[in-house]
Amino acid sequence: MYMLQGKKIIAVGDRDGIPGPAIEECMKSAGAEIIFASTECFV
Amino acid sequence: MDLEIQQRIKDLTEKFGAENIVVVIGGAEAEASGLSAETVAAGDPTYAGPLAGIALGLAVYHMVEPEIKDECDPAVYDEQCGMMEMVLDVDAIIEEVSKIRKEFSKF
To answer: Do B72 and A26 touch (CB under 8 A)?
Structure first.
């Protein structure tokens, strides 16, 4: 457990799946540090 | 995966060290999620981007995998991901991403 604490997170979200900002919010709640968040769009 | 994103991931890995980084993806389908996971763990399978031939071996998970989901505040997860989790083929995504992780992730 708590494997995310102290880790640096790169969030690669997807507009049609889970977007970057949503991953970012969740990771913050887990005590992880987000170093980059993006949202891809496959259109 | 977008070429600019590949470059950013490559730069950040050099800066912070691969062992300190976890990539969390949010792909809508199992296949696309698997390709993203493969790109950051084994190198760009399409040989189009900066990670072509570069196996960073990063730890990579999909947001809906229990290893990630269970570490989040449940209220925040529900608010941010609850709706999409109902729509996504979670089992297929977990199967695909965990397969890539077991094969290529070094951390």
So the answer is: yes
